[in-house]
Amino acid sequence: MKPIDEYFLNQKEPYQSIMLYVRSVILNTLPDVVERYCYKIPFYNIGKKPVLYLNILKGKDYVDIAFVHGILLEKDFPILKNDNNRKQVRSIQLRSLEDLDQENFEELLIASVESVRNSKRPWFI
Fold first, then answer.
1. Domain ranges of the chain
2. If pLDDT is split at 50, 70 and 90, which confidence band does 123 have?
3. Which of 35, 88, 109, 118 is most exposed by smallest CB count within 10 Å?
4. What H or E segment, with its residue span, contains residue 111?
5. CATH class of 3-117
6. Which helix (H) or strand (E) element contains residue 55?
7. Which band of pLDDT confidence, cut at 50, 70 and 90, is reported for residue 38?
8. Is 28's pLDDT higher than 90?
9. What secondary structure letter does DSSP report for 12?
């Protein structure tokens, strides 16, 4: 079994269900995305550039869907939050599957890929 699959299967509920569902939406919406296990969490890249990653932050009760170029997307997608005072990463916090607006999330995924593709550097700040 791949380390990334083990990561998902080792999560406690409800995090496991949330992450597996989000993973399927990402992979279905972005056919060119490459799923990698890096820094002990799942990353989704276009080429070698990271687009987003999934994480469960210590002491938090949600799945953090973090967008690398989130600062550039937060005007168009107000669902993105600046959790933990990160410089450029913005994220969606999901406590349950009902918290996910799938249509808006798919639009956000597509916009985030375009932002990364148009960028010369993966991390710009």
1. 3-117
2. low
3. 118
4. helix 102-117
5. alpha beta
6. strand 49-55
7. very high
8. yes
9. P
Mean pLDDT of the chain: 92
Q: How would you list the strands of the sheet with 49-55, edge to edge?
A: 34-38, 41-46, 49-55, 63-67, 90-94
Q: Number of C-alpha atoms within 13 angstroms, CB side, residue 66?
A: 20
Whether this prediction's pTM lies above 0.90 is answered by yes
Integer CA distances (angstroms), 24 to 11, 21, 94, 120, in order: 16, 5, 15, 28
Rounded CA gap, 64 and 92, in Å? 6
Place of tokens 């349950």: 96
At 7, list the tokens.
Answer: 């990561």
Question: Residues 67-75: what's their mean pLDDT?
Answer: 93
Find the mean pLDDT for residues 49-70.
Answer: 93
**Residues 6+ positions from 8 with CB-CB distance below 8 Å:** 16, 19, 20, 23, 42
Looking at the DSSP assignment, which residues form a beta bridge with residue 38?
41
Q: How far apart are CA 10 and CA 88, in angstroms?
A: 29
